[in-house]
Design brief:
3 domains, eight-stranded antiparallel beta sheet, binds glutamine hydroxamate, seven-stranded antiparallel beta sheet
């Protein structure tokens, strides 16, 4: 959330800063702004809403400075209006910030008591005032920043520009990510390597507590104790080409259709087809010593984790605890030393999950992380990285990252089952065979795109929608409801089918579509009974099952979607597709902003 870019350059920087923001827009689109230093003064442009609005402002009044900072905002404090858009300028200081200054209220009161006035409602502006106060008192920029950092609580990735010091940017990181890029006669700062990719491939990731002084010729990094430190310079490998939509109408649609390819790509790292083995990449972890697994994640990744709980317990017979990261971190969980804690995050920067990971590390857990961005903070801090190879996910509602997470977790569960002697060599070889066929089965599921588009009008007018499932289809029901909420703004709930009668059944009438996920198998009859309970109360059912299931119970439904039959370790990967497509087509029917839904952003770097 909130994207940051800075350039200390030898030629005008505004275009390149804007390009960096475009690459970061998935992090927030409440407002955007750029400030450069031009002929001894700040020159700033800001606009509410998406980057197009800032582009129009810049076209009208271009910026010419050769050093500048730029920001795309996801508001935490203060409405998404121009006065709250970053950069904020206070006297000789301009600032951009990603994160939350948790003690901003007492700091603001202190500053106001001195007669300082505020132009915005943000937490960020207090930092600008604090640094400005130091500078106005005679401090050099680096001393001013170092003095102020020690007063801040919360999370930040920040960058400062100084009116009286052309060719200087100071950045600081605590919690939120920050990366520096090395150039020729120029240097760069950004939220991530993707933002910097067209500018530099030679980058260094700042550690927590680091702050950095950038001039055209040098990058000096200091740690939290203000000691000069070196951080390894690595080749980022992030693609400089921006990700295009191709022939698709939305990134989300493109990403849904990419799934067979990226899941195949991901599985390549986990499956050895010629040996008939499932293996974890680059890991010498002895899985047979694992007695308990603790899974922690947020949002869609949490639902992938819930599916994994069913798999790990069913196939490997290892107990699994699972929690959303924001609860796990603060509820003082009991963790036995040597346990395995598994964190799942697309970006690898999710603030709640990162805080939980660090807590588990302090509690002596072995840390494994299922991550899509290999250079992310979580990937760097985990003991074992289980990568997904979904490629950049631009649509704010996660789709391909989810199915790739499921593919990794299926391989992990099978590995654990093998290590525990709960899966025979033959069963493993059979599973490898089936995993090889996942992309093909996913393509079969995608073939139903048009049918699902044709039923979107059945759901689009609804105010409330219920999703029901049992076993691993219960988290999928929740994921389906989450997708629908996120992009179509329809209230939706995912329920364990058996829980319906304990309350939510009171909501059922003919205006509430109920989406039932029920592949044929051991839980089928029970789910169908729950479906009948809904039908008996006038509920309208969209039934997702395989040919056998539809044959048995498809009659009388409002609509049906036929999925191919698959092994239990594969079936949730396949059933993810109809729930994604349904949410997508309903959102299109409603005309919402599918790729950038209101109030949301990707890479949630605040707690
Ligand atoms: N707290 C600042 C920055 C918000 C942010 O980083 N979001 O991810 C604001 O509200 O402007």
């Amino acid at each position: 959330m909130c994207g940051i870019v800075g350039i200390v350059g030898d030629r005008p920087v505004a275009d390149r800063l804007f390009d960096g923001l475009k690459r970061l827009e998935y992090r927030g689109y409440d407002s955007a702004g750029i400030c450069t230093l031009d002929e001894g003064d700040f020159d700033r442009r800001r606009a509410e809403g998406k980057l197009n609005n800032l582009a129009a402002v810049l076209a009208d009044k271009p910026l010419h400075g050769t050093t500048g900072i730029a920001h795309t905002r996801w508001a935490t404090h203060g409405a998404p209006v121009v006065k709250n858009a970053h950069p904020h300028i206070v006297g000789p200081v301009a600032i951009i910030h990603n994160g939350i200054i948790e003690n901003f209220k007492p700091l603001r009161a202190e500053l106001e008591a001195e007669g300082r006035t505020f132009e915005s409602d943000t937490d960020t502006e207090v930092v600008a005032h604090l640094v400005a106060r130091e500078i106005e008192g005679g401090a050099e920029p680096r001393d001013a920043v170092a003095a102020v950092l020690s007063r801040l609580h919360g999370a930040f990735g920040m960058a400062f520009l100084f009116r009286d010091h052309p060719g200087l940017i100071i950045g600081a990181r605590h919690g939120s990510p920050l990366t520096v890029g090395y150039g020729e006669g120029e240097n760069y700062l950004g939220s991530d390597a993707i933002a910097l990719a067209p500018l530099s491939q030679r980058i260094a990731y700042l550690d927590d507590g680091d702050w950095v002084v950038l001039t055209r010729d040098e990058i000096e990094i200091y740690d939290k104790d203000n000691q000069r430190v070196e951080r390894e310079i690595v080749l980022s490998g992030a693609s400089a080409a921006s990700v295009e939509k191709g022939n698709y109408r939305h990134y989300m649609q493109k990403e849904i259709f990419e799934q067979p390819i990226v899941v195949a790509q991901t599985l390549q790292s986990y499956v050895r087809p010629y040996e008939g083995k499932v293996a974890l990449p680059d890991s010498d972890l002895d899985l047979s010593s694992i007695r308990r697994v603790t899974i922690v994640a947020c949002g869609t990744s949490f639902y992938a984790g819930m599916v994994a709980k069913y798999w790990i317990e069913q196939f490997a017979r290892v107990p699994v605890d699972i929690d959303v990261a924001s609860e796990f971190r603060y509820r003082e969980p009991v963790l036995e030393k040597g346990g395995l804690a598994l964190f799942i995050s697309q970006s690898g920067e999710t603030a709640d999950t990162l805080a939980a990971l660090r807590h588990a590390q302090e509690e002596g857990q072995i840390i494994a992380a299922v991550i899509n961005v290999p250079t992310s903070t979580m990937a760097r801090e985990a003991d074992i990285v289980l990568p997904t190879h979904a490629g950049p996910e631009i649509g704010v509602a996660s789709t391909k990252a989810f199915t790739c997470q499921l593919a990794v977790l299926a391989a992990f569960s099978a590995n654990l089952a093998r290590a525990n002697g709960r899966m025979s060599e033959e069963e493993e070889a059979d599973l490898v065979d089936r995993l090889q066929k996942v992309p093909e089965i996913m393509n079969e599921a995608l073939d139903h795109d048009e049918d699902i588009a044709a039923m979107a009008h059945l759901v689009a007018p609804a105010r409330d929608v219920l999703y029901l499932g049992r076993g691993p289809d219960y988290p999928l029901a929740m994921e389906g409801a989450l997708k629908l909420k996120e992009i179509s703004y329809i209230h939706a709930e995912g329920y364990a089918a058996g829980e319906m009668k304990h309350g939510p059944i009171a909501l059922i009438d003919d205006a509430v579509p109920v989406i039932v996920l029920a592949p044929s198998g051991p839980l089928f009859e029970k789910t169908v009974s729950n479906m009948e309970e809904v039908r008996a109360r006038g509920g309208k059912i969209i039934f997702v099952s395989d040919a056998e299931g539809l044959e048995k119970a498809g009659e009388g439904c409002l609509a049906t979607i036929e999925m191919p039959k698959a092994h239990p370790l594969i079936q949730p990967i396949v059933y993810a597709i109809p729930v994604q497509l349904l949410a997508y087509h309903v959102a299109v029917a409603k005309g919402t902003d599918v790729d950038q839904p209101r109030n949301l952003a990707k890479s949630v770097t605040v707690e």
